[in-house]
Structures are given as C-alpha cells and as structure tokens.
Design a protein that fits this description.
homotetramer; 6 strands
Amino acid sequence: MSARVRRLEERDKAKWLGLFKGYVEFYKATVPEDVIEATWQRLMVGQADFHIALVAVDDADQPVGLAHVLFHRSTWSPTQYCYLEDLFVDPDRRLEGIGRALIEAVYREADARKCTRTYWATQEFNYRARALYDQVATRSPFIQYRR
Amino acid sequence: MSARVRRLEERDKAKWLGLFKGYVEFYKATVPEDVIEATWQRLMVGQADFHIALVAVDDADQPVGLAHVLFHRSTWSPTQYCYLEDLFVDPDRRLEGIGRALIEAVYREADARKCTRTYWATQEFNYRARALYDQVATRSPFIQYRR
Amino acid sequence: MSARVRRLEERDKAKWLGLFKGYVEFYKATVPEDVIEATWQRLMVGQADFHIALVAVDDADQPVGLAHVLFHRSTWSPTQYCYLEDLFVDPDRRLEGIGRALIEAVYREADARKCTRTYWATQEFNYRARALYDQVATRSPFIQYRR
Amino acid sequence: MSARVRRLEERDKAKWLGLFKGYVEFYKATVPEDVIEATWQRLMVGQADFHIALVAVDDADQPVGLAHVLFHRSTWSPTQYCYLEDLFVDPDRRLEGIGRALIEAVYREADARKCTRTYWATQEFNYRARALYDQVATRSPFIQYRR
C-alpha cells in the first residue's frame, strides 16, 4: 500500500519505456519511437520548460508506475500551474495504492512550487481511474475541446 | 462578421483590462490586481514560457475580444501543444463571429508552430460557447479533475 | 410572454400534426404516419395508460407548442411519477416563454396527482433547451442507456 | 456465471425485501415501509399498469438479484417501451454475471412484447454499473432533468 515515489533516473530507462508504451497503448494511440526517445532525453536533461518525471518503485527499486508533470505559467496566477499530463501504473500492480501514491507525490511537487492549481484530464469513461480521482481530487465541470 | 485579429499591443491596455476583468467575472472568480498587472507585463515582455495574446479589433482598431494562448511541451509530441487558456468577447459584440475569428487565429498560430494539438477547456454548461466550439472543434471525452 | 396552456382538443389536429412532426424532425427521427395517427387517436380517447397532451396557444387559440405527459407507476412511490416525454415549441415562437409555460403547466398536472417526481430527458448538447431547463428544474446525475 | 432468472414469487418476499432495501440504500435514499409493502403487493397482484419483477436465483433458487421493469406507452411507437427502473445484485455476489443475466432477461421480456425501446437511467458516476452497461447497451446522449 505504501509505494515509494522518486524521480526518474537514467538506470530506469527499460522499465520507463515499458510503462510509457503501456500507457500510450491504453489510449489506443501511437507515439513514434524517435519521439519517445526525445521525450526520454528531455526528461533526463531536465529542461526548464519540460515535464518532471516521477516513478513509483517496488521493493527492488524498480519502477511500477510513472507520472509526468508539467509546470506552466497561467494568466490567472503569479505562480505556476501543475499539469499532470501522464499517469500510469503497471497493470500487474493495480489496486495497491500506487496511483494514489503518485498523485500524492505530484501534490507535494506542486506545493513545493506554490502552484495555485493542480489538474489533469481523463476520459469520461475511464471508470477505474475516476474511482481513484474521485477520492483524491474534485471533478470540475470542465470538458475538453480539441481541433 | 469578419473581425480582424492581431497581437495585443501596449496601447491596448485599457481595453485589455476591461476584457480580461469581464472574463474573470464571467467565471465568478477573482484575480488580484497585482496578478493582472504581472500578467499584462509578461504578455508585453513576451516571455518564452508565457502566453501570446491575440485581440480581435473593431473598425477603430479597438480590442473587442481576447485570446491568451500557451504553447507548451508534451511528452507525446516533438513539437509544442497549443493551449487556449482564455477566450473572451465583449458581451456587447456577441454573435458577430468574433469568437470564431479568434479561434481561427489561434489555429493559424498553432499551424505556424506545427503544433500537433490545439485544445481548451470549457464548462459543460457554457452553452453559448459550446454552440460555437461544436462548429470549429471536436468535443473530446476528456473531463478535468482538480485538486 | 404569458402563453396560455390548455388540453389538446379535436379541432387542434392540423396544428398538432405540424408541431409533433417538427419535434420528430428535430431529433432527425421518423415516426410512420400510422403511428402518428394512432398517437393522435390515443390522445383523443384519453386512455388511462396513455399520455395527456397540453398545448400552448396563441391569442387566436391556435397551438404554438405541445407537451405530452405520461403518468406512470414507480416502485418507489405510492403515487405516480410524471414523465414529460415530448416538449416542443414552434420554431417561429421561440424565446417568448412558451416552453416555460408548458413546463409550468406540467408541474400543475403533476401536483394535482401528487406525483413525487416530475422528470424528462434531453440530449446533453441541446443547449437551447437546457438553458431553459436549468432555470426551472435540476439536472440530475442520471444518464440514459439504451439497447 | 450463468445465473438463472425467473419471475418473482410469493415465497421470495424476505430475500426480495433485503435486495430492494439494499438497492434503495445504495442511492442513499429512503422508501417508507408501507410504500415498500404496497410495491410488493402490486408486484404480486401483477397490475397491468405496474412493473414486472424478475429475480436472478442461486443454486438453491434463492434470489440474489432483482430487476423491476415497467412497460409503458410512448407517443413514438405502436408498441410499448421497456423501462428498467430498478436493477440490483447482492453485493456478495458481484462479478458473477448476475447483472448481465438480469439485463438479458429484461431484453427477452421486451422482445416478447415487441418493444421498440428498452432503456434505463444510471448515475454518471456509477462506474461499476456502467462498466457492465457499456458492454450490453449504448450510452445515449440523454441526461435527466428533475423538478
């Protein structure tokens, strides 16, 4: 129940790849290999305008879940907003509190930056995820439009 | 019907203030004066990590609508995403195609940057806005959670 | 603004037909002529298990809007529920309070029968209708599934 | 996995009471004892304007789930509509296909009456139920308003 969460590190690459690809597959989407590699590089460099990556790890310090978090400016706030773009837990490790531990770690990162908003988007019919989100956050009345 | 859209400029400050405050008021929210001033300064400086501001102008070149657009990195794309954070039209100038002209200008900015996604959020019950959005974009199944 | 609402009568047939067909068309649906005729007959007979029909009328006592209301048993209540199945206003007579007058008349019919619930369904994207419904009723969290 | 479904009978009263009360409790609602008793009586009498009751039974022929189905007239159809008002499965018997077996039995009853529509309502956030409904039915865009 008490998954440990830490920053993503170089040695995590194989596990991270597996998780990120599982996540993309969940959305029945595809991200080209070179884009995934570029994302990995950007996460490792730690670009100021890029996401931070958190991983939940098992007893052997191996990643079993990930969270990619973007801090960005808002016209409404002196500080940054915290946008959780990606959240994924190894399907074999569900219902162990890993997703919750990741979200709580995201909240700590947001607090450290005095973010006035932490938010994310999820598909209306992602019932499993929403069962967790309803416990740790508030469903806003906002829906998303896309070109 | 054919509102002209251009970048926000220093001389627009009074009109911009009126529009932005009207927008915040629409959401029954408040943004402190100093935050509004900081947002104005950031828009004028044109910080790399900050929004660009577009205004729709009337025949006298006076702003009658605004759009604040943030370009940000995504873990899913080699290029930036285009996030339309704020969109507002002077209540006295509704139904003239101003909102649509602003969105189309946002699309052009996104295209110029080869953004692979342009998106925004709106309240489920903002019927007037949605009647327009349904015409120029797609309602995604994504809903927003907030801490 | 103060549309009068009364029961549908034999002499209203032509106007009722126009309204009911306009309503069906609004849903991009079709109802065969013989079913429409059967519905008319049932409304005129006033079958105990069938809907009552209300019409909003203009100054010349001509129907400009209709409401078909079914009272049915519920396992949850000693009295009947009031289900507003159909509601339609002549497109040329919108924004005059006719829809509201019809709903208020439905409420009176429900009260006369001591109904413990009055309800109806509408498409999530029927913004014009919802703008009215939000004023006179409560959006429940219930969504509809159909075979 | 293959729960048997049959009509509710007199000897089922104790089990039916337990299930119906569990169902009402699920909605954090209350139904007075005398209304529950009246509902039971109406189900036993088999009133023409009242629901039929189906129960899923275990190997000992004891009810472990219920469905109350109302057939009612529609202005849109020569035959009746099939409205599944109540559906509930013993919390100790979840994930065994009992809910699905009940819905399939409802479909057979609807088919026997040549119903042109079978439908029900559920709370948007009833994720467990919706996971099943998404498999056996279609989510319509209809939402429910109530006085």
